[in-house]
């Protein structure tokens, strides 16, 4: 856990995602009408305008689509961790579904333990989950 890090607000339209991460599952909204996945979560399907959806468990596998290495000035909670990586991962189930997180060496690892020079676009990864606060478990990534 990173002390003082800003955490996401759990709202009605995102609760299914956060309930999944707390249970160790990567759940993505699926429209009940057109069956397309959508992320970030939202009340209405952007493809068919349906208000009905389910929360489907994904495999947790994907590929690094992009990444950055933030440099100062940073939020105070992250200053001592720099340099660290932030990756964008496209899911195997749908490459249009992309999640932002950090690439770690292990499920218990720190966000600054991977040498950014070793990260490659297209590299296969799998999701892991790390508690980040009382009610928040964040999806992060390890090489697969």
Describe the structure.
The structure is a single chain. By secondary structure, the protein is mostly beta strands. The chain has two domains: 10-57, no CATH class; 59-144, Beta Barrel (OB fold (Dihydrolipoamide Acetyltransferase, E2P)). It contains two helices and nine strands; from the N terminus they run αββββαβββββ. The protein has a six-stranded mixed sheet with strand order 6-5-4-8-9-7. Strand 1 and strand 2 form a beta hairpin. The chain is globular. 21% of the residues are buried. The model has no long low-confidence stretch (mean pLDDT 95).
Short description:
The protein is 8% helix and 35% strand. The chain is mainly β and 144 residues long.
Identify the overall geometry.
Answer: globular
User: What is the CATH topology descriptor of the largest domain?
Assistant: OB fold (Dihydrolipoamide Acetyltransferase, E2P)
| DSSP strand count | 9
Helix content: under 10%
Number of domains: 2
Could you describe the largest sheet, including whether it forms a barrel?
Answer: 6 strands, mixed
Low-pLDDT parts are none
Strand proportion, as a percent range, falls in 35-45%
CATH architecture classification name of the largest domain: Beta Barrel
The H-and-E topology, N to C, reads as HEEEEHEEEEE
Biggest sheet strand order reads 6-5-4-8-9-7
For the record, what CATH class of the largest domain applies?
Mainly Beta
The gyration radius over C-alpha positions equals 16 Å
**Structural class by secondary-structure content:** mainly beta
SS summary, helix count: 2
Distance between the termini: 23 Å
């Amino acid at each position: 856990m990173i002390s003082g890090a800003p955490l996401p607000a759990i709202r009605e339209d995102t609760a299914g995602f956060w309930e999944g991460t707390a249970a160790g599952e990567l759940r993505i909204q699926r429209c009940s009408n057109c069956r397309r996945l959508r992320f970030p979560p939202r009340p209405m399907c952007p493809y068919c305008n349906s208000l009905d959806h389910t929360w489907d468990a994904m495999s947790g596998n994907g590929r690094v689509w992009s990444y950055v290495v933030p440099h100062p000035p940073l939020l105070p909670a992250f200053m001592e961790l720099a340099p660290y990586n932030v990756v964008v991962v496209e899911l195997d189930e749908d490459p249009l579904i992309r999640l932002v997180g950090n690439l770690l060496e292990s499920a218990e690892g720190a966000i600054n333990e991977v040498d950014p020079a070793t990260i490659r676009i297209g590299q296969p990864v799998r999701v892991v989950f790390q508690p980040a606060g009382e009610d928040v478990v964040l999806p992060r990534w390890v090489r697969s």
